[in-house]
């Protein structure tokens, strides 16, 4: 009964009932001719429809069933036509309604039923397709967790996920959905983040790592401090963004809507003129049916919804149809360096030992001992490496003195340790630098921050720290070029030496270094003045002026940035750079399908119109072909849901030898 009730209010109820009545009409005419198929036509009908009486279209039982089938299918169409007229809009439904009513008045019951039945089938296909293409959104909604286990007064309490308070400790067990955004306080676990980033491989999480609502634990036990709950979670923002995007219209769609507004009255006028000139009412009614721009109207929105839905499933959020179209036209990409091309986390890359009495571990221990009391950002990678290699300092430095622009001076275990540049060495009277200056210059030329280490009055080593390039950065540049992007430009506030080293390793076409935010804006504007459609890729905050100026602003790694999800034209939910060319490629494919759909829709109308005037296309045949074009347009758009981009998916494990060489050179 439940299934029957669902069917009763579903998209296919009216077409099915109408179709059964039409089939029953044919059955009665075939099986009971001369018996139950008696004439039911009153005298007034013959007077009013002399044409139908002369041609043999009398009102029999089979015709009554055919008329009933047309009424069932046509009732909702007529209601929609009247509602559109009430707001002064001439809709496609009005064309069909007039054509169906005219066919009844001249006794063509089959033509009337066929027109309304096929049109209702088209509506059902359209609605069903839209529902299917919104599957990505439905999948996101389905993963929203209902319950959460929180720690209150030392006890585990199960509460609705929406009632979790900010700062509360949430317990995540194996197999559970994480109900909040938060930071891991303790424990370890493997988390499936496919709903947020589009990546299917579980990510290992431990203390201080970020987790997101809607992701699923595949092992382990986590205690999570809630930093986002209810509508303030990343998942909730994604759902809201996809809802808005799928309803937003592209420029092409807006044009088609305006075109249809004038096209429909034009078709009605053409049909009227054809009737008056030829005195053939059937010709006029057929032109009404043939001229329905149904396939044209559905051609754009079905492609946009499918393209945005597919992108969302792949962890790419596109703000709306307009941005989808703009993304397809991108010819230049401007990328920020830190956090985009690079990891955004400096690491210790080199330890060059210069004192024969020292080894790597000893140098690292002295450097870590000096940096343990420093708040400088470069201290963290040195301390992290010392901890990983088991040489962390056991005692704190007696004193640490930062020397601005030069380095630090510390006393560790009673000995003076200097970590800095040649100016620091000179300031403290160390003039015998040996090979350290040359080594430091070589490391700096490679885009690294080099630091000389001196113990008392002798240089013992040179170490270097660098923000490492993302492993997939070279592949991203190649893929952007492969899909038609003419120029990839790096905009960075860093020094030109660092920028050149990264450009050499990744294949960047152009460098603009030592830039302030307003300089990045000017650089984007300059590329636009050269005729480029520019995408700016950044973190959505520091690069805000350039992102706003670019034709398309792209936020990288938006799963960790609420600002990026809310403001970017395109947000890449994962940290994989290959999402960028994939987003552009999907946009290009969507626009191609939109154009194909427009061609199919207009081509079908023109061919049918030619057929009508040539005398070879009837009303029912025309509607059948017309609805066939609607189905073709829908199926063409549905290809976007099945697309498996191969040219834009180069995983690390199949990276080229050149990629591997670049990675090795940068570490």
Automatic annotation (TrEMBL):
Its main location: membrane. The chain crosses the membrane at residues 12-36, 56-75, 259-277, 283-309, 598-617. It comes from Glutamicibacter bergerei. Residues 144-243 form the P-type ATPase A domain. Keywords: ATP-binding, Cell membrane, Membrane, Metal-binding, Nucleotide-binding, Translocase, Transmembrane, Transmembrane helix. It comes from the Bacteria. Belongs to the cation transport ATPase (P-type) (TC 3.A.3) family. Type IB subfamily. InterPro entries: ATPase_P-typ_cyto_dom_N, ATPase_P-typ_P_site, ATPase_P-typ_TM_dom_sf, ATPase_P-typ_transduc_dom_A_sf, ATPase_P-type_domA, Cation_Transport_ATPase_IB, HAD-like_sf, HAD_sf. SUPFAM superfamilies: Calcium ATPase, transduction domain A, Calcium ATPase, transmembrane domain M, HAD-like. It holds the Pfam family Hydrolase. It is found in: Cell membrane. Gene3D superfamilies: Calcium-transporting ATPase, cytoplasmic domain N (3.40.1110.10), Calcium-transporting ATPase, cytoplasmic transduction domain A (2.70.150.10), HAD superfamily/HAD-like (3.40.50.1000). It is a multi-pass membrane protein. This is Cation-translocating P-type ATPase.
